[in-house]
Structures are given as C-alpha cells and as structure tokens.
Specification:
This protein has 241 residues and is an alpha/beta fold. Helix content is 30%, strand content 30%. The chain has 5 helices and 8 strands; from the N terminus they run βαββαβαββββαα. The protein has helices at residues 8-20, 78-85, 108-120, 192-199, 211-240; strands at residues 3-7, 25-39, 49-63, 92-100, 130-138, 145-155, 158-162, 164-167. This is BRISC complex subunit Abraxas 2.
Amino acid sequence: MSSIAIPGAVFSSLVFHLKNAPSDSEGFLYGGMRTHHVENITDTQSSGTREEKKLYVESFVCFPERFKFYDHYGRPHTERIKALLGDDMKRVIGWFSCRRNSTNRPSMREKVVHRRLTSCLTGVPCEDFLFGLVTEMVVEGSMVHSTDYSFHNWIGTSLQPVKVGIVNLQVTATVPYQLFPLTPTPSSLPHYSSTLQQHRTNFVNSEGHMQQPMLSEQLYKAILGRLKVSYATISRRRMSF
C-alpha cells in the first residue's frame, strides 16, 4: 500500500464545503501516483536509495446531495459518473462522504459503494483506491462543533483506516514564508498576464489594496459599533430603573 498525502489547502476546502452544504454531501477525489527515490541509510550501508510510491490528493469535486452517482442499493451509475466527470474520470483516485451528526465510521452502504466503484474507476489500483470520511457533530446545548476525518483503503475484506499526511507549511520558525514577488512574474504560459489582469479587480481595489482584509475590517467595525449602541441602550434602561 502506498503512502498518502493531501495539501492542507485542499483538505480545509473540503471541510469548508461540508460546513456550507445544505445537507450531507459526497464527491470524488482527484490526484495521482508519484514515485520518489529516497535515501536509505542503514547500520550496514552508508548510502543507497529506495523507491517509494506516494498517492497525492490534488483536488476534489463535491455534490451537495447523496445518491448522485449510485442508487440506494450501492450500485454505481456508470453512465452518470461518465457524464459528471467527463475527461477527469481518469484522474479519480477515490471518493468521499461528508455527514452531519454521525460517527466517523464507514457505513455498510459506503463499504458496498466503495467496493463497486473500484471496478468502474481505474485511476489507481484497487488496493490504493481511497475513501475519505468527514463528519461533524454539534454538542447539544452548546456552540461546540466537532469535525472528525479519516481515510480508508480496502484491505483484505473490509475498509481499513490509513494514515494520511496533511502537507502544510511546516514549522514557520525554520521554514521561511515564500512571499509573492512585488514585480510581475514572467511566465511562458499563454494568456498568463491577461488572466491575472482580468481577475485582479476581484482581489485588489483601484488603490492597490487587498479587498478581503478591508472588508473584514469594515465588518468588524460595524459589529463593534452595533455592540456599543446596544450596550449604551441597555445601560440607559438600567439607570432609568
């Protein structure tokens, strides 16, 4: 079985979709298998390399409802899957399910769906085909939201949890931030500059300031102002009594 890695940005986006979907959701995981040659130093060998395969989850497609690509008996709709994924079907390395108020264990239906999907999706070997499960629990009577996740492979006769590495920035004390350059970045890709210029107004205003931090600050000031007004009103009512 290969090791598995998923970027933190992709994983956080997956959780974001769960929290904003109107109901339980499902989808497919995109990625690919890569081979690395790593150093293998032992007590009897001072140098050497070994081949290591790693399965990378690069992106995903999410459907905000269940039973989008299989029926209630767990049988995949092959033609519907082809229509939904198109040319990306060959990039599929697994699928996922997002559930609310549920335990983080694969259900019997999910086990059946996973086993049958491996026969119609051949992006990776059957033993490496992934199943991701994200669940959210809300503690009754409080504002605590608990989110759990797990990834599974079919090992032997059932789905078994596997260790997945979340690829992040690492320790910032030893790994410097990689800032974007202030000057335009040259690129040989066609339409690179025109595409950046087209979407620039979505992120930067006419004065060159990032819009999202400014909007967040405006929201903070508006909330703070409303709270001050409410506090002053309550204080005046208490004083009148």
